[in-house]
């Protein structure tokens, strides 16, 4: 039994690692996940932190330098973009662009520094997810890791295709000038890729929690279905309880015990999910606030730029590329807001479904049957103890009587 549980945990762990492999690799490439996070050998465990040594310091130092290079490149490109191109714009448009630059750089620093500062949360969240996965599996459900992997692989593919389109339009808008394209793409594309990868990590955790809540609700619904199917047997069981002593090995009693144990475990899992959700929101809360604020500024800017582009009298090819670019940017920032809202909506919806499912229970009937089963079990054990005590007293009386007879003789 112990070996079976260990093998199941190892299997769940390997499935979990496989479902996150591609996402973690891409995030590490852009510096949004630490390099020293050991995923492929020992799971989300920082083995190097436990062992220590020169290798850990070297890896951390190189990772920090890599993050500094990315942040510095975006900051320098922003200054060059402002001094070389944006000075030609009207004052209002220039101020809106400066606001976007400030928000983008703040978000980039938050993601690049936060993934190192809060690296302990990777291990903490993973341990909790694996623990809840094992407990859900012990209740008869299983997390669909294949579904998670497929969903986020498609999401990553969509993100790659979108930014590929943005880069193509940006290259055409800059008249195929290489350094202008590098400067513009660093300011706009690279910073938003880092922001999106940070939000995808948040969406990944919420999607896991959503599936857990869905499994809990599905198990509770199956409980109500089984209980309703057994309803026509309860009258016969009550008569059986009144005329005979119920054995704990009885099929109906075992079923009631299983239901009670299942509901208790699901209640505990539901509370753990609520605690995990609060921790995830606290971890990503500042990033979410900054992202939504920046998206509001950018959406206002892009809509204003579209208004300006559509009111010009002379129309050139660059105006077309600029219009397409603005539309793509509106789609991007709207998608970033939805990337926060939609997983939260799914989680909230499943959380709120638990209450109505519990309202379908008839607690009086369930408690009566369960109490009768427990009373019957206690009565059985009491009868066994009484019989054992009576047998012991009779044997002692017989032994005393034999001793008296021997002394008389």
Calculate Rg over CA atoms: 32 Å
Order of helices and strands: HHHHHHHHHHH
Structural domain count: 2
Give the structural class.
Answer: mainly alpha
What is the subunit organization of this protein?
A: single chain
Count of strand segments: 0
Poorly predicted tracts of residues:
1-7, 40-51, 235-257
Helices, by number, come to 11
Spatial shape: elongated
Distance between the termini: 60 Å
Proportion in β-strands: under 5%
Return the average pLDDT rounded to an integer. Answer: 76
**Biggest sheet overview:** none
**Helical fraction:** over 70%
Transmembrane segments: 64-84, 96-115, 155-173, 193-213, 284-309, 321-342
Function: Gustatory receptor which mediates acceptance or avoidance behavior, depending on its substrates.
Organism: Anopheles sinensis (Mosquito)
Subcellular location: Cell membrane
What does this molecule look like?
Keywords: Cell membrane, Membrane, Receptor, Transducer, Transmembrane, Transmembrane helix. It comes from Anopheles sinensis (Mosquito). InterPro entries: 7TM_chemorcpt. The chain folds into two domains: 1-40 and 53-236 and 253-360, no CATH class; 367-391. It is elongated, with a radius of gyration of 32 Å. Helix 4 runs antiparallel to helix 9 and helix 5 packs across helix 9. By secondary structure, the protein is mainly alpha-helical. It is 86% helix and 0% strand.
Task: Please render the helix and strand layout as text.
Elements: H1 2-29, H2 47-51, H3 54-84, H4 91-117, H5 120-138, H6 145-173, H7 178-229, H8 234-243, H9 251-310, H10 317-359, H11 363-408
Helix pairs in contact: 1-6, 3-4, 3-7, 4-7, 4-9, 5-7, 5-9, 6-7, 6-10, 7-9, 7-10, 8-11, 9-10, 9-11
